[in-house]
Amino acid sequence: xxxxxxxxxxxxxxxxxxxxxxxxxxxxxxxxxxxxxxxxxxxxxxxxxxxxxxxxxxxxxxxxxxxxxxxxxxxxxxxxxxxxxxxxxxxxxxxxxxxxxxxxxxxxxxxxxxxxxxxxxxxxxxxxxxxxxxxxxxxxxxxxxxxxxxxxxxxxxxxxxxxxxxxxxxxxxxxxxxxxxxxxxxxxxxxxxxxxxxxxxxxxxxxxxxxxxxxxxxxxxxxxxxxxxxxxxxxxxxxxxxxxxxxxxxxxxxxxxxxxxxxxxxxxxxxxxxxxxxxxxxxxxxxxxxxxxxxxxxxxxxxxxxxxxxxxxxxxxxxxxxxxxxxxxxxxxxxxxxxxxxxxxxxxxxxxxxxxxxxxxxxxxxxxxxxxxxxxxxxx
Length: 380
Fold this sequence. Notes:
Layout: H1 3-39, E1 55-60, E2 66-72, E3 80-84, H2 95-101, E4 106-110, H3 129-144, E5 149-154, H4 156-167, H5 171-174, E6 176-182, H6 198-216, H7 219-228, H8 230-240, H9 250-262, H10 265-277, E7 292-297, H11 305-314, E8 319-323, H12 330-333, H13 335-376
Parallel strand pairs: 3-4, 3-5, 5-6, 6-7, 7-8
Antiparallel strand pairs: 1-2, 2-4
């Protein structure tokens, strides 16, 4: 072998060796970082995430899909709380709300189509998918809610409630007594900066739809890659999904990551265009007739504070809560703040219900009194 050849081989070997060493060093650094995170005290380590179960129920949607739902809490409660989860999550994402409210209120939790324990649904028209979720919610209410209720929606779940208001406003006069919109948006998600400079954000929004669609056609392959990269997903979710990454419980991060990873990438790709096209600002007026609570983390980069403020401007009677040091998963990151806001909303809903019942009783009494005077007066 000539000197020149040996030199080329030596250089190539050095480059391969350096690259291998770099990959190994990066992998070691990642494992070291995750190891250090998991060794910290974790107050949530014993929390039974994903283990709380209620009475199982099945709701058949108008297109024949059988949705999974659970009913929990006392059947004789004064109202039902219906919880609608977000994109790539499932009904278990309401762990703290279920745990802390079920002793006082009847609760209905359901897995939106293609999520959790509800089966995968074919998508014929991405543009109408959020409207389809609104119809699903109407059917859940009809099947599982016998009396007055409060609706609570996180992210895509909030959009589901807006779609219900758009298509079935009469329900907000008949059954729905209050609404909570958590980390959600009435539209224009395609303009969100994602925490990036404006130019880079535009590039990301331009490239992402085609990339998601392409990867969705290779969903099984992508899912295998997601399984292999769960440590990386843990680190990314810890920093992007929570406002206080330093103090968030690793157990909570693992719990959320497992829900996201259990959602097939084909489903992620199916729903993405509908979320970007969502626009229900005009439907918010329906909610102004019932007590409404709007809750958002101050570091939410997926559905930013400005979107919640826009909803609050459209609903001047709504209670607006901006939760400090929290991001998109505020119901898991700051459950006490969220639960307090929900309890306040329920009290307002019950007060409105009591006032409406009293007014109806007065009208009935007046009608009966008028009839009695007419029937019992002198005949002539």
